[in-house]
């Protein structure tokens, strides 16, 4: 798996908040944003898997 560059334009206030949150975790803003996106993606995929499992078991009953 390779990597791709993603460039974002955000306002100063949002950047300040992200920098503060990242600093509290000892991270760079870039690392904080990437980890947040990864976590959100995992949460979405997990929810989809749970929903599909529930549909499967509802179909059996």
Compute the average pLDDT: 91
Taken from the alpha-carbon principal axes, the silhouette is: elongated
Please estimate the helix content. over 70%
Q: Give a short account of the largest sheet.
A: none
Structural class comes to: mainly alpha
Euclidean distance between termini CA atoms: 40 Å
How large a portion of the residues is in β-strands, by DSSP E? under 5%
Helical segment count: 2
The Cα radius of gyration reads 17 Å
Tell how many strands the DSSP assignment holds: 0
Explained architecture:
There is one protein chain. It is built from two helices and no strands. The chain is mainly alpha-helical and 61 residues long. The chain is elongated, with a radius of gyration of 17 Å. The model has no long low-confidence stretch (mean pLDDT 91).
Outline of this structure?
Helices cover 74% and strands 0% of the residues. With 61 residues, the chain is mostly helical. α1 (12-24) crosses α2.
Topology:
Layout lengths: L11 H13 L4 H32 L1
Features:
elongated, mainly alpha, 74% helix, 2 helices, 61 residues
């Amino acid at each position: 798996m390779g990597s791709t560059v993603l460039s974002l334009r955000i306002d100063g206030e949002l950047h300040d908040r992200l920098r503060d949150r990242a600093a509290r975790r000892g991270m760079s803003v870039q690392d904080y944003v990437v980890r947040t996106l990864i976590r959100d993606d995992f949460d979405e995929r997990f929810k989809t898997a749970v929903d599909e499992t529930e549909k499967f078991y509802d179909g059996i009953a």
